[in-house]
Amino acid sequence: MSKRATAKSTQRRAKHPCPWVNLSRNGSNLNTEDFLTFRITRVSNALRTGLTKRYLEEFDLSLPEWRLLALVARFSPMRFSELTSRSGMDKGQVSRTLREMAKNGLTKMKSIRPAGSRSAEALAAPVMVSITPKGKALYQSVLPVARRRQAEMLATLTESERIMLYSILDKLFLTVGSAALAQEEGE
Q: Would you say residue 183 has pLDDT above 70?
C-alpha cells in the first residue's frame, strides 16, 4: 500500500471513529454494520470473491472442492466426520461436494463395515475419504498459486498486524468456535 493510500485510509478512520472503542455493555451504540459478525462476513466474502475464486477458476475448482481437496490431501485417509469438522462445512454440502469430486476422479470414499454387519448397521458405517493420484496432482498444482496469493494479501499488513490478527482470530475461535464444534458433534 502506498503512503498516499495509507494516509487516506488513516484520514477515513479519523473521520469515522471505531464504534468498538467506547463499547457499551449491551451494545446499544452498535449499528448492524458495526457488528463483528457483519464485518468478518463482509471481509470473508470479499476475500472469497476477490482472491480465492479467481485462482480456483484457473483450475476449474469451486471453493468447497478446494477446501475439501486440501484437507483430504493433507490428512488422507480421513473419516467423513473429521472432514466435516475440519472444513467447517455442513454434512450435506460435504457429501454433495465429495460425490462430485469422486465423479471427477479426485477423491474416493469407502464405507468401513465390520464383517457380518447388517444393512441397518451398514448405513451408519463410517466413511473413509482418500485422495486419488489425479486429486493429488491437482492439489499440488493449485497449492503454490494459493500460497502466493494468500501471502500477497497478508503482506498488505505489517508484521505486527499479522501477528495481532492471527492472535485475535484464534481468541475469537476459542471463545465461540469451540462451543459451536461441540454443539455440532452433539447433534
A: no
Q: What architecture is the 60-113+120-133 domain classified under in CATH?
A: Orthogonal Bundle (1.10)
Phi, psi of 152 (to 5 degrees): -60, -40
Shortest CA distance to 89 belongs to which of 100, 81, 78? 81
The DSSP symbol for 33 reads G
Cell of 178: 469451540
∠ CA 127-63-161, nearest 5°, is: 115
Contact 29, 23 (CB under 8 A): yes
State whether the Cα torsion 75-61-148-39 is positive or negative: negative
Report residue 42 as a C-alpha cell.
463482509
First CA to last CA distance, the chain: 46
Average pLDDT value for residue range 55-84: 95
Helical packing angle, 91-103 and 63-75, nearest 10°: 80
